[in-house]
């Protein structure tokens, strides 16, 4: 490969990875703007997740799925690959399965749930069903294609099957849990899937932030700077604390009548930290053409 072709390929890879990272950060901006537009017209809802039941739904769902695809594209190698693949696989569940809402908490759904209870309104169940079934079918296709491509590359390029097996195992596990929950325990699935998926997703992002602190220690030129390591640690710690507080609030109902709602504040913090993580990644890796955690030669 001549020098001009190599330089052009390097420039193309730089643009691709920069745009993917910036695009993930941009999905948070999309959600924030959509939430702001609806809030200006209808007031603050109990949580950002509750905006699924408003005209912001298309932006909310589309942005999360776009982020999932970009995360999968950036997953790289090593432990980071498994963690990011898991996050990318779980993210669509947050988008497609809405959070249950309490009676009268969302305009237009005042009588959708019995007084004093929370539920997933029957009017949105057809959309949820289509989304979940599509997610599972596409998931099976993606697993099959990934396995087939890896086997082909194994013969042609010597790629080891072990490089993708952990991610495929995670994918199969997630899809199996979703399938069993949807068809065997639908009421439980609808009441818990969104919350558990959100906890898993942001928990994985916190772990990934910790992993970033130790990134490329065998290659000092690519190792994060001290301030970046501090920032990654801050993101991980605050994200974990925020998740714990939100789980307590959701499960106990503490502060549900407060203004602004505590879950809304917690979700804003989680998205802000997610945005900060990808902005930090963009800064750190601005001139890198290899997004992986492992050394470039590792397979």
Give an overview in words.
The protein is an all-alpha fold and 299 residues long. The protein has a domain at 8-107 and 190-284. It is built from 8 helices and 2 strands, in the order αααββααααα. The chain has helices spanning 3-42, 57-73, 78-96, 125-157, 165-184, 186-213, 226-252, 262-284; strands at 101-102, 118-119. A two-stranded antiparallel ribbon has the order 1-2. Helix 2 (57-73) packs antiparallel against helix 3. The longest helix is centred in the N-terminal third of the chain and has 40 residues, at 3-42. It is globular and about 60 Å long. Residues 293-299 have low confidence and may be disordered.
Give the secondary structure arrangement, pairings included:
Blueprint: H1 3-42, H2 57-73, H3 78-96, E1 101-102, E2 118-119, H4 125-157, H5 165-184, H6 186-213, H7 226-252, H8 262-284
Helix pairs in contact: 1-2, 1-8, 2-3, 3-4, 3-5, 3-6, 4-5, 5-6, 6-7, 7-8
Q: Beta-strand percentage?
A: under 5%
- Percent helix range: 55-70%
What is the H-and-E element order?
Answer: HHHEEHHHHH
C-alpha Rg, in Å? 20 Å
**Order of neighbouring strands in the sheet with most strands:** 1-2
Tag the structure with descriptive keywords.
two-stranded antiparallel ribbon; disordered C terminus; globular; mainly alpha; 299 residues
Give a summary of the structure in a few sentences.
This protein is an all-alpha fold and 299 residues long. It has helices at residues 3-42, 57-73, 78-96, 125-157, 165-184, 186-213, 226-252, 262-284; strands at 101-102, 118-119. The chain has 8 helices and 2 strands.
């Amino acid at each position: 490969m001549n020098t001009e072709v190599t330089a052009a390929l390097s420039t193309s890879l730089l643009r691709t990875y920069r745009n993917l990272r910036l695009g993930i950060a941009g999905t948070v901006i999309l959600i924030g703007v959509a939430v702001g537009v609806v809030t200006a017209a209808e007031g603050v809802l109990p949580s950002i997740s509750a905006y699924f039941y408003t005209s912001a739904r298309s932006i909310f769902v589309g942005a999360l799925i776009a982020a999932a695809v970009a995360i999968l594209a950036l997953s790289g190698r090593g432990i980071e690959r498994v963690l990011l693949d898991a996050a990318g696989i779980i993210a669509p569940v947050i988008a497609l399965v809405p959070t249950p809402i309490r009676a009268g908490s969302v305009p237009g759904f005042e009588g959708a749930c019995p007084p004093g209870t929370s539920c997933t309104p029957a009017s949105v169940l057809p959309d949820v069903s289509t989304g979940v079934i599509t997610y599972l079918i596409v998931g099976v296709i993606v697993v099959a294609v990934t396995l087939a491509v890896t086997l082909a590359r194994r013969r042609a390029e010597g790629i080891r099957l072990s490089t993708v097996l952990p991610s495929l195992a995670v994918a199969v596990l997630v899809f199996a849990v979703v399938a069993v929950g949807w068809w065997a325990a639908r009421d439980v699935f609808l009441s818990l899937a969104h919350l558990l998926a959100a906890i898993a997703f942001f928990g994985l992002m916190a772990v990934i932030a910790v992993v970033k602190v130790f990134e490329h220690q065998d290659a000092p030129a690519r190792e994060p700077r001290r301030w970046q390591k501090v920032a990654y640690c801050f993101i991980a710690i605050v994200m974990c604390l925020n998740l714990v507080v939100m789980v307590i609030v959701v499960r106990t109902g503490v502060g549900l009548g407060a203004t602004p709602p505590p879950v809304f504040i917690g979700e804003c913090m989680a998205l802000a930290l997610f945005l900060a993580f990808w902005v930090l990644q963009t800064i750190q890796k601005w001139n890198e053409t290899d997004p992986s955690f492992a050394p470039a030669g590792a397979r």
